[in-house]
């Protein structure tokens, strides 16, 4: 199989962040996805020490273990590097992979700030490497199916969209000290960047972008419990995010995301039109310690084709599945679709739609949310030239 013009065989992958101990998103989602896809070969893992790298390699069946990330980057037989560590390390690790001339995947968010995200995007362009951002829910079969249903007139003209995400982790769990950055507005700001970024991106995937918006960012849980400590930690990052505005393709939309709910609602989206309604919801029920706050799975589609009709369970046709049956359902499923989309683009010599350009656009969307909340006003949302052409 000639998956790349310069190499025979599958895309060879090195991963950082897939440790053997504790819950790691790289371990539960990326490793199973990559190992189930014939277009990829997971050949190396890097960690903070040689012993932890060897433990991860043994746990995941990966041939090469590197206790030094730079050492893995120097390995000549790697095509793609996957950065699945916590968000505070994304910028530096991704920059090093670009400088090494490797194609690079980075989990969302790409960087702590939009300016740094732009820096990475421009560096990748200059180096001529392909990029991939971890907003994989956009690749879910449900998204393509619902978009097709809308295009076929299932709901008529889209009139209103309501999106909800409720996460109960910070109200249920004591945070380890290493994770306190997520409740810090000047560092991780997880309520907006992680929960808000994933949520607004996938809403965009279903119904298109905002053209303008208003927003509220509120801190309603003032402290969180620190694991093993005698005192609580102050919360400065918003734990409630409310965004509403007009969609570029018509209609209005509201999105409400909360980090401190008493219950977990992984995903709920209602698309109401002039003649019908579509609802997308997640039935995922994972223990609090095993969830990624921005990333639901197991999404279901329901439809109401007209007034007076009964709701129908709309099973996604198997034709929308783009990965082998060996790919597990749940957390690896949409990740596998993301990687398969990348492999298909590599094979075709075509641009990858979920690259760092897309990451920068979502960073800029979050900047618009911040601006609207701070100024208590409606703001215009930046659009790419391609988006402007599609909505003209």
Please, could you describe this protein's structure?
- The structure is a single chain.
- With 392 residues, this protein is α/β, with parallel strands linked by helices.
- It folds into 2 domains: 11-137, Rossmann fold (3-Layer(aba) Sandwich), CATH 3.40.50; 141-315 and 358-380, 2-Layer Sandwich (Dihydrodipicolinate Reductase, domain 2), CATH 3.30.360.
- Helix content is 33%, strand content 24%.
- It has 11 helices and 17 strands.
- The protein has helices at 25-36, 50-60, 69-74, 90-99, 114-127, 141-151, 169-172, 190-207, 331-348, 356-375, 385-391, and strands spanning 11-16, 40-46, 64-66, 80-83, 103-107, 131-134, 158-166, 210-218, 223-225, 232-234, 240-247, 252-258, 265-273, 277-282, 299-304, 312-313, 379-380.
- Strand 2 (40-46), helix 2 (50-60) and strand 3 form a beta-alpha-beta unit.
- Helix 1 (25-36) crosses helix 9, helix 4 runs parallel beside helix 5 and helix 5 packs antiparallel against helix 10 (356-375).
- The model is unreliable at 1-5 and 388-392 (pLDDT under 50).
Decide which structural class fits the backbone.
alpha/beta
User: Roughly what percent helix?
Assistant: 25-40%
**Spatial order of the strands forming the largest sheet:** 16-15-14-13-7-12-11-8-17
User: Which homologous superfamily in CATH is the superfamily of the largest domain?
Assistant: Dihydrodipicolinate Reductase, domain 2
How many strand units? 17
Give the radius of gyration. Answer: 21 Å
Largest sheet: number of strands, sense, barrel closure: 9 strands, mixed
> Based on the structure given, which CATH architecture of the largest domain is correct?
2-Layer Sandwich
Low-confidence stretches: 1-5, 388-392
Per CATH, what is the topology of the largest domain?
Answer: Dihydrodipicolinate Reductase, domain 2
Please count the helical segments: 11
> At the first level of CATH, what is the class of the largest domain?
Alpha Beta
Roughly how many Å apart are the termini?
A: 42 Å
List the helices and strands in order: EHEHEHEHEHEHEHHEEEEEEEEEHHEH
The shape, in one word, is globular
Number of domains: 2
